[in-house]
Amino acid sequence: MSTGFPPIGGPGTGRRRPRGFWYAIGAALIVIGVIASITLFVVVLLHLMGRAPTDEHTFGNKEQTSVHLDAGASKTIYVTKGTYAPSSSCTAASTDGGPNPDLSSYNATVTLGNWRALFSFSAQNDGDYMISCSGPVSDARYGVGDHISAGDIAYPFMGIGAGAPFVIAGIAVLIVTGVRRSRSARQQPFS
Fold first, then answer.
1. Between 37 and which of 9, 51, 77, 163 could a Cys-Cys bridge form, CB atoms 3.0 to 4.6 Å apart?
2. pLDDT for 87 beyond 90
3. Using an 8 Å Cβ cutoff, are 157 and 41 in contact?
4. What is the rounded CA–CA span in Å between residue 15 and residue 18?
């Protein structure tokens, strides 16, 4: 099996010492892996942050906002992290007399920036829905954003893993090059 490295050894043995450019190749692979990991992490994280409530759909304690949903679409009701209270309650009602969506509370802690997920709901029919919330914290801010699951939070970290094969390959190239160059240096005949 060929490793792509020139043969090891000194003059007359038919084996040559690997060139130093293999170190550069190993380092380049590591850099590519790190850059890919950071880039994918940031891109996916920014995409998730875009699901947070917009100013248009935020409201105060005991207030309400209206959102339009297509049939089957899901949304999440968030509260600012600093004003979270487990006893907060929210309602979602159809404004055109259709069926009201059922709210499901989050069993895990899901946060997007300053927002913590409280409830999620899905619309059975196209239409406008009135969302209202109340809780023990009088200055609480609530908002309606795109649905996010606990599993979605893992995606940025999976992006980190995308660069891992390059980093591993780079480390392997550096180790093999170092070992082969070391062996070659020890096998050089003394003059």
1. 163
2. no
3. yes
4. 9
Who has greater pLDDT, 47 or 27? 27
Specify the residue for token string 């070391």.
182
**CA of 102: how far to CAs of 35, 74, 88, in Å?**
43, 11, 16
CATH class of domain segment(s) 53-147: mainly beta
In tens, the pLDDT along 93-134 reads 988 887 888 888 887 787 788 888 899 888 888 889 999 999
**How far, in Å, are 48, 51, 54, 106, 176 from residue 83 at the CA level?**
22, 20, 18, 16, 55
Number of residues that this document lists for the chain: 191
CB 98 within 8 A of CB 125: yes
Tally: H helices and E strands in the chain: 3, 9
Cα torsion through 132, 135, 137, 142, rounded to 10 = -30
Task: Evaluate whether 107 touches 73 at the Cβ level (below 8 Å).
Answer: no
Q: How far is CA 87 from CA 56, 82, 93, 168, in A?
A: 25, 14, 20, 48
